[in-house]
Amino acid sequence: MKCPYCNNQETQVTDTRETESLEATRRRRECAKCGKRFTTYERVEEADIVVVKKDGKRERFQRQKLLNGILKACEKRSVPLEKIEKIADDVESDLRKRDSVEIDSRVIGEITMRKLKSLDKIAYIRFASVYREFEDLDRFEEELEKLQKK
Length: 150
Known about the structure:
Layout: E1 11-18, E2 24-31, E3 37-43, E4 50-52, E5 58-60, H1 63-73, H2 81-96, E6 102-104, H3 105-119, H4 121-131, H5 137-149
Parallel strand pairs: 4-6
Antiparallel strand pairs: 1-2, 2-3, 4-5
Helix pairs in contact: 1-2, 1-4, 2-3, 3-4
């Protein structure tokens, strides 16, 4: 494994453990040259998930794209990175358990929003406002009212 700081090829694993969902192996590594530590995740390579967009176009599922959306929603919130990673892991796991490898982007958004709602309400509203394309303040207020009733 190459060190992300100095590109040295020699690194040593200092700790290995399974993620909570048992979907990946987390490894803490230390560079033999610069001594910095970093984390890697080892996952089984599975069949590609195909996302069917609103306009009907199809593209490969990109976990990083999902993670970026969740990170953006959680920006300036006190949500630990581990919990954000867990949401991305859980969403991907839910998608892989489905019968079809083709999944509507709407389904991915709904699963993500459900998980964000239980984690952080502000992050949920941020994600929902982009995902559901709130066009005016009334639509935003409707969503807030729904959230406050629950």
